[in-house]
Amino acid sequence: MSKSLVVITGASSGIGEATAKMLSAQGHPLLLLARRVDRLTALGLPNTMCRQVDVTDGPAFSAAIEEAENQFGPVDCLVNNAGMMLLGLAHEQDPAEWKTMFDVNVMGLLNGIHAVLAKMKARQGGTVINISSIAGRKTFPNHAAYCGTKFAVHAITENIREEVADDNVRFITIAPGAVDTELLSHTTSDAIKAGYEEWKDGMGGVIAPQDIANAINYAYQQPQHLCIREIVLAATRQQP
Length: 240
What we know:
Elements: E1 5-9, H1 14-25, E2 30-34, H2 37-41, E3 48-52, H3 58-72, E4 75-80, H4 95-123, E5 126-131, H5 144-164, E6 169-176, H6 190-202, H7 209-220, E7 230-233
């Protein structure tokens, strides 16, 4: 392949889907991972391997990457995009929802890093792009556990970036504000969802998945000696 392999998690919709389409158009072979594999294959992208993988299953994650590398060569970029947002008040929310978010948003991300990082260090090159959130920089009502997961993403990304900088491996955080994706649909409280939608309407609409894909592409396509450590982006009228 003339371009290097890119792995994208949560690629069946939203940011992951938009990023897959963009990088495929540029000629990158892809490994797309999601729970809804039918939606991955429906994209019809060339030189693309689609696998039904839950990112919380470390061995399955690693096995899919090994299979893709056997076909397309080493992973040059991992986009850790899979995530869950289950909003609720700390005294009311089902603790099972907290566990789900930490399992997917934190452990799933770490599983991906663990699957690719040793080889990137050995090759002295590679890029890991972790999709966080403005909720990884500041807190919001009803977001306590979700913010906790995204603050963790910020910390993990920057910590490992410092560890592997001398190995010429880049770690990048992308922190979007409100985006028009399926993320809010995971929340079980109708009242919270209604309030969130009112907030989105109040800013005149939110940014599109393509906007985030553009940011991911910009950061990735920089020369390897340049690391865009963090990109924060949101609708101009979004407050906070």
